[in-house]
Amino acid sequence: MMPQVLTRLAPQLIALVVLMGLVTLFYPGFLSISYSDGRLVGPMIDVLKRSAPVALLAIGMTLVIATRGIDLSVGAIVAICGAVAAYMIASGYGLPLALALALVAGLAAGLWNGVLVAVIGVQPFVATLILMTMGRGIAQLITEGRILTFTDPAFAFIGSGTALGLPVPVWIWLGAAVLAVALLRRTALGMLIEAVGINRKASAVAGVNATVLLVAVYMAMGLCAALAGLIITADIRGADANNAGLWLELDAILAVVIGGNSLLGGRFSIAAAVIGALIIQTITIGIRLAGFPSEYNLVIKAVLVLVILVLQSPRIASEYAFWRQEARRKREAQLKGAGR
Amino acid sequence: MLLSIRSLTKEFPGTKALDSVDFDLRAGEIHALLGENGAGKSTLIKCLTGAYQRDAGTVTLEGREIAPRSTVEAQDLGIGTVYQEVNLLPNLTVAQNLLFGHEPRRMGLIDSRAMRLRARAMLAEYGLDLNVDRDLATCSVAIQQIIAIARAVSLSGKVLILDEPTASLDAREIEMVFGVVRNLRDRGLGIVFVSHFLDQVFDLTDRLTVLRNGRHIVTEETATLDRVRLIEHMLGRSLQDEVLHSRPPDRGPRPELLRFTGFGRKGRIEPFDLDIGAGEVVGLAGLLGSGRTESAEAIFGLQPAQTGEARDRSGVLDLSSPRKAIAAGFGFAPEDRKTDGIVADLSIRENIILALQARRGWARPIARAEQARIAVDYIRRLDIRTSGPEKRIGELSGGNQQKVVLARWLAMNPRFLILDEPTRGIDVGAHAEILHLIHQLVEQGMSLLVISSELDELMAVSNRIIVLRDRRHIAALAGDEVSGPTIMRAIAGVDAPVEKGAVEKGCVEDAPVEAAPVGTAPVEDAPVKDMPVEDVPVEKGGE
Ligand SMILES: Nc1ncnc2c1ncn2[C@@H]1O[C@H](COP(=O)(O)OP(=O)(O)OP(=O)(O)O)[C@@H](O)[C@H]1O
Ligand SMILES: [Mg+2]
What we know:
Chain A is mostly helical.
């Protein structure tokens, strides 16, 4: 069991280690971690913390993509949930209610997407595009077009606090990832989701409740987006309906793909997707630390991502296998020739 | 020699699919490639068409060694293929399908007039005269198959490979396709024909080659072999009784298990009445598109019935979805295993336990050890040829995939199991085993609804046979009434007025019924040369 998991994760882990090595070449202090004031500090801890939103989204996005879907609306859901929480806090409803309502908002958004996709049969790309465009409008209605700020130390703790030496967002995404993996792999849920993603019709014939499963997957995505929204909002102590979670859906999809999950659905690995999120964040922070002028950031990021994806592509893998086989055949032929 | 293969070897992890196989194809012959499920037939073909690269051995075409790396390359070399599942684009027109990727152009734009003319000329060579502007989907499967052949021949033109091309055709349509194939042989093509229908092999082919476990066993003139010897070559043992031509024992009237009354769905199947006895096998006979599968899908809740009701002894049954039907103790092994049966990227183990797991619910996973036990048990009982239960089902040979789908339902132990074409693509040995299995299940009290285009098979297992025509249940035959001729007469509607044009979906009325003579146009004149029929992304990119 364990070696199997490691083989699956090897490409992502290798990519991550190589990247960390690269960044260290340019910025030797990258891997240094120190302990002060009861918490760990260092660039890597920063990477872990800043990965939180994308890592959380990647968990949900992995499931959506496993069902052959895609969710473009997660950035907008992040904004909505952040706005809901900030509004509740600012209006004095107290933290528990604010958190609960934000999570419910995320679930509701997921339900909307899920119903469009699974019940009505709209293509996921189009279905989630609707909420992607509409969502920020809703968030703006909630914040009434302003940046809704608040001062609630308990809420802010979620975004910038420290617990047991690590930033709270790290605990949240780690916890969510462990919980998700346990829920999916300790039950039959993971296999059923894969079956639906690979062949929905055949799964339905076998009695799998594909429709309910699909809706549940989009709702899980909504929940992940709500968590990400809470962290982002708590971190900046304000809800910015225009910018919170902007373009995050693309980073989340990228993380899933770097994680070696096929956009055609089926077999998935949440752990790999989360490592994908770490890779993205390492690149982002690494470029900055390495001292490249900021205008290079996006280009370098794109190039690195491209390299990782190309190395992972099955096409390359099979070309490589073919090439090796040819080489072997030639060598054998030579040996035979020499033998005579 | 047109095509000559020497010591061809191809290995997959855990399996030697081809082990030093020799094979020769002459120009102007139809050469059958035979063997059990998993013998390596499809692998051999895929090595020829560039879908797989061989590990060792040589392939020479007209004296030149070739090693195609893609189907396009194979076509350019002259090797074309038609698969069992028609690999065309159903919502393009006939003409577009024929010339896809090779449309005649004028000033960079597609010249649709020239395209139509060329398409019509191509079809005329096969004695077909049909409106090339209609969507391919409106044509019968036989016509689609011929269109696929026409396309493959026009693109390649030396070697034509047919991998189980007749599996979904009825007798008349098969004759039509065979007429086309014979004419291509007479034009000098070398044709490789893969099929599990031995009658067809004797009817159509000049020579045959048998593979077993990836090894070449024998190559002979078809005429010099008889059926028994051929089966011995294929299985490596003799087959005691082929079960076919027998009839199930008559065990008198049975207690009623299920009763359907006025069961129907608009546009799919006219309301029908049907009783199923406990431990009874009811067969559904009829032509393609006569409503057999539609009846099954209504019963299983895939296309739920809009009228009528289903009852068992305890009352009315809810059959509004497959889940409900399964809860009522039903099972359904569908006809089209690729789209409705297998979940290609999951393992054999997961495919077998899928329905069981779905019934238990996601929260109560079947323990891994138990899953493995079930899988191994059925792999043994159905003789599924695999290196192990963890193999991806998509990597199994076609017939073995079919057995896995059967295993999935047997593991459920339903009280009423619907089998739609249960032996399609299954070799003679396994065919007999599956008929035995059906007898066993019935002994244990399971009731079955069996759909099959092979009348012999249907008669061998069914206590009662319902004949369908034009989406209507028109006759029920039992006991002594069951015989080939009576069923054929009922299917053809000899004693009832035939409603015109309703038998199949479109296209047929302007196609000649028998194979018409093929024109004499030399193959070299084929207008287009290098288009990937198989590479068209029908499935993956389709949605
Ligand atoms: N892509 C693959 N990966 C691994 N094993 C494979 C793959 N393709 C085929 N095999 C194995 O090779 C063997 C030969 O398979 P092949 O499909 O050639 O059989 P076949 O003679 O066509 O059988 P059938 O009559 O059932 O279609 C089988 O054991 C099969 O499991
Ligand atoms: Mg095959």
